[in-house]
Design brief:
This protein is an alpha/beta fold. It has a single domain, classed as TIM Barrel, CATH 3.20.20. The chain has 13 helices and 9 strands. It has a 7-stranded parallel sheet with strand order 1-4-5-6-7-8-9. Helix 8 links the parallel strand 5 and strand 6. Helix 5 packs across helix 7. The protein is globular and about 55 Å long. The protein starts with a helix and ends with a helix.
Length: 327
């Protein structure tokens, strides 16, 4: 099977010649430049041979054009936190208007996707990272989002709608350029950020609309549910071919999640403990447990989120070897 065929089979819960897997990470030294990011992404793919290739842009790419400024400090997972938010006062929400995603940082991200696709020498599906509008509203405003939603709901919701328009257009442009699909990251579908009522009012309608717009165009739509205490029953009902979350750190388990989604689950590997610090036996044990939980059908082995920068190459090699041995 090619990597593309293996992923297609996993999405359909059909047998595969071996268990598909994928790993992805940030490249903070390279991500400011599309050419350098593409080169680093392709080298990482050539080294480890994931069954899908995720283009992971700088963490702040989707908010920079509205005025957010990233810090110089790089976190252990490779992203740079926002040093200055675009929304620093309630009135700033009115400044958030829909952008042309062919320009600015969005345009540079689109260029990186194109360069990755142009440099590929393998039949591997490429997915581009897109953030949910509510997630970006939090990135734009930091800790003031919930208060502003209560005090100025009209202004905040108008801004979220403008963000959604921009994200939907960017996703379409990535597919136009040749990406196989979209890695749709929802960082606001958690009880730690919003009640289920808040998410259903200002988050889910935009998430559903954007994901619905990918139907028939995206061969691999991955929904990444970020963080803990997830509104998983709502997130799993959104239209996506595969769902990824930190199943080793927060409910549901991989087996429980597989019972809730129509397609595949991506996970089984703890990127912070096992992949970063675990022994070879611990890595193999997580791979074997993930396969046992799912019966090897509808499973793409992977971390619950981006790899920390200091994950040893040897542990990623172990995942690939263990996946191949379980085919």
């Amino acid at each position: 099977m090619t990597r593309r065929e293996r992923i297609e089979a996993a999405l359909a819960r059909k047998p595969t010649d071996r268990t598909p897997f994928a790993v992805w990470r940030h490249f903070p030294e390279d991500d400011p430049n599309p050419r350098a990011l593409a080169r680093a992404t392709l080298a990482f793919q050539a080294r480890f041979g994931s069954d899908f290739l995720k283009v992971t842009f700088a963490g702040g790419y989707a908010v920079a054009d509205w005025g957010c400024v990233e810090a110089d400090r790089v976190e252990p997972d490779g992203h740079r936190p926002c040093a200055r938010h675009a929304v620093a006062a309630r009135g700033d929400w009115k400044k958030i208007r829909a952008l042309d995603p062919r320009e600015g940082e969005y345009g540079r991200a689109l260029e990186a996707v194109g360069r990755v696709l142009d440099g590929l020498r393998d039949d591997v599906p490429v997915v581009a990272t897109v953030f949910s509008p509510l997630s970006l509203a939090r990135k734009l405003s930091g800790e003031r989002l919930n208060e502003d939603l209560r005090e100025r709901p009209g202004d905040v919701e108008a801004a979220i709608a403008a963000i959604a328009e921009t994200e939907e257009r960017f996703a379409a442009l990535c597919l136009d350029r040749g990406a196989a699909g979209i890695f749709y990251s929802i960082q606001a579908g958690s009880r730690r950020h919003h009640t289920v009522e808040e998410y259903l009012r200002v988050g889910e309608p935009h998430d559903r609309r954007i994901l619905e717009s990918l139907r028939g165009r995206s061969a691999l739509t991955i929904l990444h549910a970020h963080g803990a205490d997830l509104h998983f029953d709502r997130l799993s009902a959104l239209p996506a071919g595969a769902v990824n979350w930190e199943d080793r750190a927060t409910p549901p388990s991989l087996a429980e999640g597989l019972a809730m989604v129509p397609g595949a689950v991506i996970g089984g590997l703890d990127q912070w403990k096992t992949l970063r610090q675990g022994s070879p036996a611990a890595v193999r044990a997580e791979v074997e447990d993930a396969i046992a939980q799912t019966g090897g059908r509808g499973l793409i082995l992977g971390p619950g989120c981006v790899l920390p920068l200091d994950v040893p190459d040897a542990n990623i090699d172990l995942v690939a070897a263990a996946a191949a041995g379980a085919g």
